[in-house]
Specification:
By secondary structure, this protein is of the alpha/beta class. About 50% of the residues lie in helices and about 15% in strands. The protein is built from twelve helices and eight strands. The chain has an eight-stranded mixed beta sheet with strand order 3-2-1-4-7-6-8-5. The protein starts with a strand and ends in a 17-residue tail after the last helix. The mean pLDDT is about 95.
Length: about 350
């Protein structure tokens, strides 16, 4: 039987107790649960230690390490189980999450696997928008990628890793270790797996300030990884490289797509009503089918999804802003040594 250790890197995580309880009540037992209290200034460590009688271990470095990957690497050498699951200190797993993921590792070529991520709460505009983003991404793109053995990323908040392939620890060269590691596994000829029915619920940014911080980190890490890994990815796994290429092209063409309605109105004389009509038809064909399927599959209200539609476009604009910003910075300015790469891990929450 495969053995599993869960690592919870935690810095000021008020929900860490909920995360721990979601692990303790898994239908498949976990061999070790370790909380790395990264010198929290609140009661995170105290809450974690309250579960000591249920086998939860708590360790703390002498000084704040400053990133999730570094906190995980602080104790990686002490882990001897077959599998390792780092989980964010504000993420909750469905009771059968571990039970559903472990079997995929019976295939020795599988090195990393994760499930479907949904939002833990849908209270703010940003959380509602992110829920739609997840319903679309995990019930369309990720499902197609799984069918073609080309999963582009195993989500960092809830991914299981095969321990033997973590000999160098979790990647610290990037701000998004999940994308970087997933691509490295494809380059090495191994498999990354998406398990559709395994559900994790993650806390999302609740304000524009924290959404900006999260997207800054995500987009920086994506373009950084693209610049460093794409040539090897193209040689070793062309299908994953194709998905990466499509995302890259979408980013580059985003300004054109946004300008098309303006050009259609002022240059071609197409009315605003006609533009809006065809725009909505496009979303009706490409956006809503996977979102409605996701609503049905996950028990999410279609009415809530419809009400969140304007918020999704607002989040799309914020995504677009950081896509362009990090494209220019990571693909042009950093290689030219005009600026230095970002190295500071900024949390998308207070």
């Amino acid at each position: 039987m495969l053995t599993l250790t869960v690592i919870i890197p935690a810095y000021n995580e008020p929900d860490v107790g909920e995360t721990i309880e979601s692990l303790l009540y898994q239908t498949r037992a976990i061999d070790r649960i370790i909380v790395v209290d990264d010198c929290s200034t609140d009661n995170t460590g105290e809450v974690a230690r309250s579960y000591a009688d249920q086998g939860v271990e708590v360790v703390s470095p002498p000084a704040n390490l400053g990133s999730k990957a570094k906190a995980q690497n602080y104790i990686i050498d002490s882990i001897t189980t077959d599998l390792v699951l780092p989980i964010d200190g504000d993420t909750e797993l469905a009771p059968n999450y571990i039970e559903l993921l472990i079997p995929v590792f019976e295939d020795p070529e599988v090195s990393v696997a994760s499930g479907c991520v949904l939002t833990k709460r849908q209270e703010t505009l940003w959380e509602k928008a992110r829920q739609l983003e997840y319903l679309l991404g995990f019930h369309w793109y990720r499902s197609i990628q799984q069918m073609s053995n080309s999963v582009t990323v195993c989500s960092g908040c809830c991914t299981v890793f095969r321990r033997e392939f973590l000999e160098d620890g979790f990647p610290e060269v990037t701000l998004t270790e999940d994308i970087y590691f997933t691509w490295e596994q494809h380059i090495a000829g191994r498999k990354a797996v998406y398990v559709h029915d395994a559900i994790a619920r993650a806390a999302e940014p609740t304000s524009l300030e924290f959404m900006n911080k999260q997207l800054k980190r995500w987009k920086c890490g994506w373009f950084h990884g693209f610049r460093l890994q794409y040539p090897r990815l193209l040689r070793k796994h062309p299908l994953v490289a194709l998905w990466a290429s499509l995302q890259f092209i979408e980013t580059v063409l985003a300004p054109v797509v946004l300008l098309l309605p303006i050009l259609a109105f002022f240059v071609l004389g197409i009315s605003f009503g006609q533009i809006a009509f065809w725009w909505l038809i496009g979303d009706l064909v490409t956006f809503w089918p996977p979102v409605m399927y996701g609503c049905w599959k996950r028990g999410y209200s279609p009415l809530k999804a419809l009400r969140s539609y304007p918020a999704w476009y607002l989040l799309k604009m914020v995504n677009f802003r950081w896509d362009i910003h990090m494209f220019v910075r990571e693909m042009i300015l950093v290689p030219l040594r005009v600026v230095q790469p970002f190295t500071t891990y900024e949390r998308g929450k207070a």
